[in-house]
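note to self: dont lose this again. the chain is below, predicted strucutre after it. 190 aa total, dont forget to put it in the shared folder this time
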Amino acid sequence: MIDYMIPLSQKPASNKKWASTCLLAAALAIASLPGHALNLFGDDPDAKEKETPEIDWQVPAPPVAENLLSFYVSRSTRQSFAIDAKSLTVDTDGIIRYTIIGTSAGGAKNISYEGIRCSSFEKRLYAVGNADGTWTRARNSEWTPIATSGPNLQHAELAQNYFCSGSTIAGKAKQILQTLRYPRPESRQM
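---
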């Protein structure tokens, strides 16, 4: 190992030069550490590879009105939202999958099968529901960050108040469904 210590007797004359020498020595010391030492200052580029691989998922049965659990998003949300209780799963790959129905003030419905990963606070669209009860797989089905501001906050509401406890899943499907059925008062007043 190389010794980066500079004896005080060899200290450079100016403080600026001394500071830059110390900074260079520190950078060289960090760079010489084994593994991914440089990742101390950023994300691990291999983190995606370390996540549990996704299971092979199947689209659920189309939602039925008596299985819908509505949830409040915010005063500024123009749609109402509900989760199909029969579709909600907490899978071994760390993903909560569910069917969500968004209904406009005029009655138009958007149905989609989605997933939320609490560990990375991301969402994924798997399929879109059609009027005849069939599903169309999403063309661009990639994990994207969940927005916490703006017009579409239904995913943030689900993640923060029902599905996740920090970066972990808030329980088994039965517990999450119980929270959707009987939400805490503060989650209704965002």
